[in-house]
Amino acid sequence: MSLEGRNIAILIAPRGTEEPEFTEPKEAVAKAGATVTVIGLEDGEAETVTGDLDPAGRYPVDRTIGGASAADFDGLIIPGGCVGADKLRASGDVIAFVHDFFAQGKPVGVICHGPWTLVEADVVKGRTLTSYPTVRKDIENAGGRWVDEECVCDQGLVTSRTPKDLPAFCSKIVEEFEEGRHPAQARSA
Amino acid sequence: MSLEGRNIAILIAPRGTEEPEFTEPKEAVAKAGATVTVIGLEDGEAETVTGDLDPAGRYPVDRTIGGASAADFDGLIIPGGCVGADKLRASGDVIAFVHDFFAQGKPVGVICHGPWTLVEADVVKGRTLTSYPTVRKDIENAGGRWVDEECVCDQGLVTSRTPKDLPAFCSKIVEEFEEGRHPAQARSA
Predict the structure, then answer these.
(1) For A144, which residue in chain B has the nearest alpha carbon?
(2) Is this prediction's pTM over 0.90?
(3) Is this complex's ipTM strictly greater than 0.90?
(4) At CB < 8 Å, which residues of chain A contact B?
């Protein structure tokens, strides 16, 4: 499989994004040939964590969300981390950006607490997905169908539960990003 | 006002409960004369944070949730902290405990990300409340009416948004705990 020529965006919060849910999907799509752009809320470096609370790494932000457009990308990755996901959903620019990927029928991979941004963007209704267990109720109340599987793929929407699911998640997002647009992805936007 | 003879429970997560949202309400009800019991998920000490991520204090757990019953208390306080609130909602014992306070018409004070436990316990429908802004959507999707005020009191349910609201929150929970049972509190249980 090859993602040569594809532009993939990955979101990161200023603090609190879960380290391996950021690094591993990023590496997987880069290894497949994609150009990956790290999109943050602020310029400079973002600080990741492990286990939701423990400081992990520091990563440069390539582009701030204010200057980013879904039209420039072929796919989107949204990592978890409880605080990181909470900070991402708090940004109206992030929510508009996420919504646009759905409206444009582009594949999106979301893991752990990441689906809170989907709930906030109102793109969950009628979709089948998984998440960290605590997000289940919020997904169901938003009209989504929650299932307990390591990786769920619903017409361009790829979701997983925790860092343990990363091998399956990384493999599936590369596959979906290679397939390209999924017109049915737009049905919940 | 006096809370002499009243037993008040306050929840704390093993890690990630927001420091001042734990300490200030606890001190306010104790100062008014209440006996306060710190209820945790595990024996030993719990670690609080400030700003969702930075380590703050360590506090002994008085009783674990497995051995706690709402019948033993006259009121409940649920602090926030993004990770702490997420860990509390993950516990079925915590959710049953929270639900029982509503079923028994007892006053409950909840701040910041704390209302996630109310969403999880299905006691939000038809109630008016506030929270940290990121929890708004989850409350509304659960059937609650969200308002942006420093302190909201809906027949025994007291809610506030952030640590800045603590003076109003602490004053109001003491008042509600003194009033005692609010039969209308049970209407959403």
Answers:
(1) B141
(2) yes
(3) yes
(4) 15-16, 49, 52-53, 82-83, 86, 89-90, 113, 116, 119-120, 133-134, 137-138, 141-142
